Amino acid sequence: MRYNIYMIKDLRKIPKLKVLSLYKNSFLEWKDNFNNYTKIALVVAMPVAIINAFQTNGYLGDYGLTTAIAWTFTFISLIYFAIHSKNLKDSKLATIYTSASSRFLQYLGANLILAIFALPFFLSLFGLFLSLPIFNLPPVVFLPLSIVSFLLSSYLLARFGMTQIVVVADQYSVIESFKKSTELTKKNRWRVFFATFLLILTFLIALTGIQFVLGLKAEIAQNQIISSIVYIIEASFLAPIFFIFQAEMYKELNGKK
After folding, report:
1. Is there a domain that residue 3 lies in?
2. Does residue 15 sit within a domain?
3. What does the DSSP assignment read for the chain?
4. Does a structural domain hold residue 12?
5. Residue 13 lies in a domain
6. Which structural domain, as residue segments, surrounds residue 61?
7. In which band, very low, low, confident or very high, does the pLDDT at 221 lie, cut at 50, 70 and 90?
8. What is the pLDDT of residues 150-206, one digit of tens each?
């Protein structure tokens, strides 16, 4: 049975996103429910960190697919809690993960399609940077294609940027979620894209800075215990913040602040 806790009465009255207040609301939500978000992330972050450490030392084989599935369940759980945190009666981890697990296939399907939409941009970058060594052509030859591909992928990701949230929050099918995202982002597509892009860019800068600092001393960079601790901290902070941000954007577009 479908439900929508933030039903829009008139999709033509979707408000314009206030990006700064969106960041502020996301931070406040994360701060108010810090313990719950951290616990949801740690359920997977800690075992994955241990697995990564054993793999690095050659004690375990490749568990990439297993960890990817585990993280997918965690992402869905973070979205579920971020959407329902104000009216969730039972915040036990088992309840959150069980409630979120029913959307696994739909969430996975939606993200696979979104990944396809991002392919033109990454393929154009591939051609741009490898044009000279592989095709013996100057990069400028691929520049027009790269610009067109970037704009195309950006538009598609902006238009369907709410799909993975809708598929969890509204329990819609994959196709219905893409349609709902199209309506939600109608007046805010570039705001959705650039607000998300700025957040991801901030994460990348922070992660690069952390790795740079750790790499200043080889003994620290190669220490598996330190690497595992850093991984757990990064995952426990960044994953919740990103999906809280997505959920807050969804609520604001639905007119529910």
Report:
1. no
2. no
3. ----TT--S-GGGPPPP-HHHHHHHHHHHHHHTHHHHHHHHHHHHHHHHHHHHHHHTTSS---HHHHHHHHHHHHHHHHHHHHHTTT-S---HHHHHHHHHTTHHHHHHHHHHHHHHHHHHHHHHHHHHHHHHHH---GGGGHHHHHHHHHHHHHHHHHTTTHHHHHHHT---HHHHHHHHHHHTTTTHHHHHHHHHHHHHHHHHHHHHHHHHHTTSHHHHT-HHHHHHHHHHHHHHHHHHHHHHHHHHHHHHTT--
4. no
5. no
6. 29-252
7. low
8. 888 889 989 999 999 999 999 999 999 999 999 999 888 888 889 998 999 999 999
